[in-house]
Amino acid sequence: xxxxxxxxxxxxxxxxxxxxxxxxxxxxxxxxxxxxxxxxxxxxxxxxxxxxxxxxxxxxxxxxxxxxxxxxxxxxxxxxxxxxxxxxxxxxxxxxxxxxxxxxxxxxxxxxxxx
Length: 115
Fold this sequence. Notes:
Blueprint: E1 3-7, E2 10-13, E3 18-25, E4 33-39, E5 46-51, E6 57-59, E7 67-72, E8 77-82, E9 91-99, E10 102-105, E11 109-114
Parallel strand pairs: 2-11
Antiparallel strand pairs: 1-3, 3-8, 4-5, 4-9, 5-6, 7-8, 9-10, 9-11
């Protein structure tokens, strides 16, 4: 059974930092790219960042230069370091495992940035 479990969300002031973590189990981790998406109230879920097994990274324009995605292939974990947070970053953040058209999702973790 595939499980993605996020942790690390919370309340932070604008300009602050948070690190989200995702622990994956029940899937061949090296076959999947790991990604983070987010969804703010009233908005569609949007892409934030992704990282392949081999280390390639992509970012949404809105977070490039402020967020950094990483993964530990030995521990089947992924992280999202978020710096210089803005009120617009407030959302539920979801960890996702991607392979072709397949998407696996975690339950989400709330990030709230106060201005």
